[in-house]
TrEMBL record:
GO-annotated biological processes: methylation
Domain PhnB-like: from-to ranges: 4-123
Gene Ontology molecular function, alphabetical: methyltransferase activity
Keywords: Methyltransferase, Transferase, Ubiquinone
Organism field: Sporosarcina pasteurii
Gene3D superfamilies from the UniProt entry: 3.30.720.100, 3.30.720.110
Recorded superkingdom: Bacteria
Protein name, per record: 3-demethylubiquinone-9 3-methyltransferase
Record has Glycoprotein as a keyword: no
Entry keyword annotation includes Transferase: yes
């Protein structure tokens, strides 16, 4: 069995540092770990963590815009209603609401949004057992 570590890498079109700042401001246990800038100020390599999960970021330096796809999303399970309400509000600002925050058969509240950077998020307030 391998001890490989898998870390999500998010490539932005010149907005990596702004995205890291937003994401680390939304979640309680989150911080920017490191940022290495290119000479032009874009992020050559950055890392941030949310609740112990490390993410890597880079700014696209190839000149051609590359967008995210909602076929891959970050799924967040919230413990408190205030937490999902706040997270939904912050991540949906200037973004697109795919599924509005509402009760579903599988969650007290659920939403699917694409934030202003194009990253897809699914938010769930799980039902208590």
């Amino acid at each position: 069995m391998s001890n490989q570590k898998i870390t999500p890498l998010l490539m932005f079109n010149g907005e990596a540092e702004e995205a890291m700042a937003l994401y680390t401001s939304v979640f309680e246990d989150a911080k920017i770990e490191s940022i290495l800038h290119q000479e032009n100020g874009e992020v050559q390599h950055g890392t941030f963590s949310i609740n112990g999960q490390v993410f890597m970021t880079v700014d696209n330096s190839h000149g051609e815009l590359v967008d995210f796809t909602p076929a891959m999303s970050l799924f967040v399970t919230c413990k408190r209603e205030s937490e999902i309400d706040y997270t939904f509000q912050k991540l949906s600002e200037d973004g697109t609401i795919v599924i509005d925050l509402a009760e579903t058969p599988f969650a007290v509240k659920f939403a699917w949004i694409i934030d202003r950077f194009g990253v897809s998020w699914q938010l769930q307030l799980e039902k208590s057992e």
